[in-house]
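Board notes (copied after class):
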Amino acid sequence: MASAKPTLPITKFFSQLIGSFPKLFLANVLFCLPLAVFFALFYAISLIPGLTPAAVMLIRLLTVIPVFPFYAGVTQVAAHIIREENIPVVSDFFAAVKDNFFRFLVHGTVMYAVGVLSYFSISFYVHMLSGNSALFAPLIISVIVAVFILFTFFYIPSMTVTFDISMKNIYKNSFLMSFGEFKKNLLAAFGLFLLFIFSASFLVACMGNRIAIIIVTVLLVMFFLPSVTAYIINAAVYQRMYDMVVDNTEQLKSVENRITEARQQAAVKQFDAEAVKNELSEKLREFDIDENADGDEYIFFEGRMMKRGTLLRMKREVTESEMN
């Protein structure tokens, strides 16, 4: 019987996407319910008279912070699809939200802050570039920094829902992988670019009709974009991220085990010394030890090989305790 041909990564990607689309669709709807509530809230606040366009944008973007904990559910569902684990979507979604709520609230705050800073930095240099070509270099640096921030956030959500590690290690590992896994990051970015082209094609078809553009945008966000975005990112980076964190954790455990063993051995040696002192105090008093010889030299005493310095210390302690 002929052996089965291995599945190409691109074939597996699309077969999983198509086969699991109902799960992604459901996770997307669960995510967009709180998204709609918080966006409506901040949209209403942004309608306060007298606000500048920049202030209006900043207020509406605040939606990212309270809604980001619900992205934990989307990330969890996408990660389980990539790992080919068949878990009920609703329970999986809300378990991830519950377990990671405060951490994702921090992630959302960080994402909002660095996103706004990156946007205004790039906008500033682009605006000033026509009057001063020397600003081209800081513009390029700002774009590169923004790209690596994006790459870092490819890993932060998945690492948070997968591993019970400190926030410090989540950010450190994600930042290192934004450089170290550059090919995987480019693959994820390319997938997101294709998703953008695919989505934009619907909007282009509605050009000239503002109402149609709004409706199509809402439909794309409500039923498609967040969960497919999470799926694309996880398909590109999840397995490598998982392997690297597990490998590092095993190495850390190995080091911790060696340290624990060394401490246990030191405790046993200390216990043996105390046992010798307590059990053989009489013989220690009578045992003749050359105090001028090498203290690190091992000598035979009552069936044990012990350092001369250790025996001298114990003999002095026995003598002093009797004098007291």
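Comment from the instructor: Confidence is low (pLDDT under 50) at residues 1-7. The chain has two domains: 9-244, 260-323.
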